[in-house]
Design goal:
Order of helices and strands of chain A: HHEEEEEEEHEEEHEEEEEEEEHE
Order of helices and strands of chain B: HHHEEEEEEEEEHHHHHHHHHH
Number of helices of chain A: 5
Distance between the termini of chain A: 53 Å
Radius of gyration of chain A: 25 Å
Number of strands of chain B: 9
Radius of gyration of chain B: 27 Å
Strand content of chain B: 5-15%
Distance between the termini of chain B: 81 Å
Strand order of the largest sheet of chain A: 10-9-12-17-14-15
Oligomer: heterodimer
Structural class of chain B: alpha+beta
Number of helices of chain B: 13
Structural class of chain A: mainly beta
Helix content of chain A: under 10%
């Protein structure tokens, strides 16, 4: 970064004989002070503030329905122990637009960051066929309870190779999966992560279900995120607010897979929600802000009291202003 | 032998044409490489990705508005994709296309309620995700290009440039009564002051050059500025010197004073630029104390001009006024340039030119002292005077640490 500066030599202190210069300087100072009469050509300026951050003006990439498959999970199936649930995940290198006009050389599962939503009911047999079509060795490490050989740590899958992960889905809740090849930090921040829902044996009450994965992108490789998002695209839900109905509970499966930063959070405006930590218990906390460490996740249930437009965002203001912000459009 | 005379004359045009052969061959090789050089480079493996950094030239602040002037210093075109102010993505407009070709510039306009007096940082991210940032020490409204601002910078430049030099010249009558060995000491003192200024200016030029994006300027660029100004002044000195007689290589009296004034003027141009741009960028608080400091400091520059001029029996007051203007007025010009068109590249040129000019004037002063001073260059008065010049500069610098 270039920076103009005055050198030591130029900062020489004054002395008495020239103190008369003071009044002269007094003449110059106001002349250099702010000149507010200068024309600002206001018409050419873009809007500012939150008003500028909703709808078409928002600098968000993507079209109106681009994130549907990452937002709306597949439906839950009834409890049926031993049923096989098959998924195929393909790791590939892909250049994706993460912020308006900004492209990131990502490593993806099935072409998106985050990867696809996997869903099973507790005691289903999850069978995930993994093909590594990328240029580096990868794995899938699932959180949850499974045999050691299915952990995706030692079973390195080289480019062009396959591996089938097979284990009973448990415990019920909401869990992340991610690559565990080294260097770990690199493989995760490049985009190899996603989430899977394990439904409880006793089905959850019906709700409008949404999945939100909080993440960040370090596009210039300095170890700090340049952008923060939910479901992979900056300001996406500010440009395309999520439509929900007041008459039905909104259930959000929320996970934090942000690399480089310790914690991320979600804050809802205008209402409260129930937080079920990891989604694995019946206990909940009633709040409007939830904080998650990297790898933590929870299930939120909102019963909107009012209709209208309500903001949600990371309560780390910095994250919100770097892309992790959106709106609910609540109607009757 | 007539044939022997004719033959070389005939071959002469051919020999001249031979000088074009390397150029033609070079063109052919370049064309061939451009057409089919890819496979050759592939032998070395893949090229690393481009740096994709912008050069943020200037950040201008108006109430509620931030303007960012960016240039693409990269060999390939670069696209402005995202803009942040204080780590927040902001909507922006551009005065042209978002994709900049090499060395093309654009101005980004952002509506932003910046907080006066607080640090501010702006970031411009390319479509490839590389962010270039620039920090502003304290946000202050950039003085507009108005008559008021123009006059304000002129007053500042006048105060720190012309006034102290003129005051320093008033030592002239006292210097005339000084014995020759002490006059030599004052001349050597002038050399010391100039040597200090030259090194400072060179350091400043190199420091600013190092902060520039690589493609714009390397250290050789500083050398170009230094050499151009040194040789330009040497040429001028030679012309001034030979007017008095062909065998008078060492300048003296008014001519030497004029040369010292030119050298100091070029230095003050850089100093004015530094003051103007630092003020415009919110990096400098122009308090009464600081302005007074500049004035006291620059009085020594008047002394430096007065010392050689003391040799003349009588100098018309208009000449003295001209000397003061030549040495001091460039500070006004520098303040205008720094205040209104801040350019780091221009600053490098100015400081390089200032260093080259100071070096040349030191040489002229040295030649003068060697010829005229009792005891030459190695007399106690001369050595003491030169070191005293350095010490004065160093000590005044120490005071502000």
């Amino acid at each position: 970064m270039s920076k103009s500066k005055i050198t030591r030599r130029q900062l020489v202190v004054g002395a008495a004989p020239l103190a008369a210069a003071g009044p002269l300087y007094g003449l110059a100072a106001p002349l250099l002070a702010s000149d507010r009469e200068a024309s600002h050509m206001g018409h050419e300026l873009p809007a500012a503030g939150h008003a500028a951050m909703i709808g078409d003006q928002v600098p968000a990439p993507g079209g109106p329905r681009d994130l549907d498959s990452l937002l709306v999970p597949p439906p839950a199936l009834p409890h049926e122990p031993g049923r096989v649930r098959e998924y195929t995940l393909v790791a590939s290198d892909r250049r994706i637009e993460v912020a308006k006009g900004v492209y990131f050389e990502a490593w993806t599962y099935n072409g998106t960051v985050p990867g696809p939503i996997i869903r099973a009911t507790e005691d289903d047999l999850l069978r995930v066929d993994f093909l590594n079509a990328g240029s580096h060795p990868h794995t899938i490490h699932f959180h949850g309870i499974h045999p050691a050989g299915m952990d995706g740590v030692f079973e390195i899958v080289n480019p062009g190779e396959r591996f089938t992960y097979e284990f009973p889905a448990r415990p019920y809740g909401f869990h992340p999966y991610h690559c565990h090849a080294t260097p770990l930090k690199k493989h995760i921040h490049k985009g190899l992560y996603g989430t899977f829902i394990v439904d409880p044996p006793k089905p959850r009450p019906p709700a409008q279900e949404l999945v939100m994965v909080m993440n960040g992108y370090d596009t210039d490789g300095d170890g700090e995120n340049n952008f923060y998002t939910v479901n992979g695209l900056t300001f996406y839900y500010a440009k395309y607010p999520i439509r929900v109905s007041r008459s039905q509970t909104v259930r959000i499966y929320l996970a934090n897979l942000t690399e480089f930063d310790l914690v991320n959070s979600l804050h809802l405006h205008g209402d409260f929600f129930r937080v079920y930590r990891t989604g694995s218990t019946e206990q909940f906390e009633y709040t409007d802000t939830v904080m998650l460490c990297q790898g933590e996740r929870c299930i939120l249930e909102i019963d909107f009291a009012n209709t209208g437009t309500f903001m949600f965002h990371a309560h780390q203001s910095e994250f919100a202003e770097l892309g992790w912000m959106g709106f609910f459009d609540v109607s009757d | 032998m007539t044939s022997g005379e004719v033959a070389p004359r005939r071959r002469l045009p051919l020999r001249r044409a031979w000088a074009l052969v390397p150029l033609i061959l070079l063109l052919a090789v370049v064309a061939a490489f451009a057409a089919a050089g890819g496979p050759v480079l592939d032998l070395l493996g893949r090229n690393p990705p481009p740096a994709d950094q912008f050069d943020i030239r200037r950040v201008t602040l108006e109430p509620g508005v931030v303007r960012i002037r960016v240039t693409n210093p990269q060999p390939d075109e670069l696209t402005i994709a995202s803009v942040t102010v204080d780590d927040a993505i902001v909507p922006f407009t551009l005065d042209g296309p978002a994709t900049l070709e090499r060395l093309r510039s654009a101005t980004i306009v952002v509506q932003y309620e910046w907080v006066g007096g607080d640090p501010l940082s702006v970031g411009v991210t390319s479509s490839t995700g590389i962010e270039t940032t620039k920090d502003i020490g304290a946000a202050v409204e950039t003085p507009g290009a108005s008559a008021r601002g123009f006059f304000g910078y002129a007053v500042i430049g006048f105060l720190v440039g012309v006034v102290p030099v003129a005051l320093g010249l008033l030592w002239l009558p006292s210097l005339r009564r000084t014995p020759p060995q002490w006059l030599a000491a004052f001349m050597a003192l002038t050399g010391g002051l100039l040597a200090f200024l030259a090194i400072e200016a060179l350091g400043e030029a190199l420091e600013r050059q190092a902060a520039l994006p690589g493609p714009l300027a390397g250290p050789g660029f500083v050398l170009l500025a230094v050499a151009a100004s040194y040789l330009g002044l040497a040429f001028l000195a030679q012309r001034l010197g030979s007017r008095g007689g062909a065998a008078a290589p060492a300048l003296s009296g008014l001519a030497l004073a004029a040369l010292v004034a030119v050298g100091i003027g070029l230095h003050n141009l850089g100093e004015g630029l530094a003051i103007g741009s630092s003020f415009a960028l919110g990096e400098l608080t122009l308090g009464t104390f600081l302005v007074v400091g500049f004035m006291v400091h620059n009085v020594t520059e008047g002394l430096a001009i007065a010392a050689p001029a003391a040799e003349e029996r009588r100098i018309r007051p208009t000449w003295l006024a001209a000397l003061a203007l030549v040495a001091g007025a460039p500070a006004i010009l520098g303040a205008w340039i720094g205040g209104f068109v801040t350019s780091d590249l221009l600053a490098v040129v100015f400081f390089g030119v200032a260093a080259g000019a100071a070096f040349e004037v030191i040489v002229e002063v040295g030649r003068y002292v060697r010829r005229r001073a009792p005891g030459g260059l190695t007399s106690g008065h001369v050595i003491g005077g030169f070191l005293a010049g350095l010490v004065i500069m160093y000590a005044t610098g120490l005071l502000v640490g």
